[in-house]
Amino acid sequence: MKASIEIKYILLYSILTTMSIIIGLQFWWTDSYTLSLLSIEVFALMATAWIYWMAVLYISVLVIRKYILKLQHKYFFGPLYLVSNESFHKKIGFKKTKKIKPYLSLTSFLIFISSIIVFNIIMNIHKHHEIDEHGEIETIMVKDIHIGGHGSIHIYFEYNHKDYNHLPNMKNLNIGDLTTIIYSTENPKLVEYFLE
User: Fold this and answer.
1) Is-contact 110 38, C-beta < 8 A?
2) Are 30 and 53 in contact (CB under 8 A)?
3) Domain residue spans in the chain?
4) Which of 140, 148, 172, 177 could be 152's S-S partner, Cβ–Cβ 3.0 to 4.6 Å?
5) What are the pLDDT digits (tens) for 94-110?
6) CA distance 96 to 90
7) Rg (the chain; Cα; Å)
8) How far apart are CA 177 and CA 56, in angstroms?
9) How far is Cα 31 from Cα 177, in angstroms, rounded to an integer?
10) Three-state secondary structure call for residue 167
């Protein structure tokens, strides 16, 4: 396979991954109550996952072409072509054709899941770093109790003189109760209960 074809796959993967990260970061810190409802944030995160899934499919095609099936075709093709083009399947033979769908599914799934796990770990490390470095402790009053889409109970509160958020009601708080939170002054969406 030509280096220019490999570069196309890597470039397409990089562009789609970057797009999904940029969109995803806009909504990553959305509180769990909002995510439990059918909101714009949920659809944006689903679109992010779909865009990243497309990126993973393209990089999986590269992996399958180069390392598994060792295909030497001189042109670029996508995952749909790899799976469904019958004339292509005749060219490469029945043995290799049989391997395409399982390998594409397995490779894509492993890349997708491992990427999500790594991204989640990085974002949690970032959240704890932000709260440790820029944390502001504030006592807040529970303004309301909201029930999420799956019956989960959340407290609604205002903080930082202008922001509002929801946290899971793990402390069985009622309206008017006081509790202490900590949030990042750099990114006030990063908020959690303050554990003394």
Assistant:
1) no
2) no
3) 3-131, 134-193
4) 148
5) 788 888 888 889 999 99
6) 10
7) 23
8) 47
9) 20
10) strand
**List of long-range contacts for 69-73, beta carbons under 8 Å, 24+ apart:** 69/96, 69/99, 69/100, 69/103, 71/1, 71/96, 72/1, 73/1
> Over 80: is that where the pLDDT of 74 sits?
no
Indicate the CATH number of 134-193 among 3.40.50, 2.40.50, 2.40.30, 2.40.320. 2.40.50
Averaged pLDDT for residues 67-85: 81
Phi and psi of 159, rounded to 5°? -155, 170
Element (H, E) at 82: helix 79-84
pTM greater than the 0.90 cutoff: no
Contact present, 17 and 80 (Cβ < 8 Å) = no
In the chain, % of residues over pLDDT 90: 46
Give yes or no for a contact between 14 and 7, defined as CB atoms under 8 angstroms apart: no
Cβ 50 vs Cβ 17: under 8 Å: no
- Look-up of token digits 């970032």: 126
114-166 pLDDT tens trace = 999 999 999 999 999 999 999 999 999 999 998 887 788 999 999 988 888 88
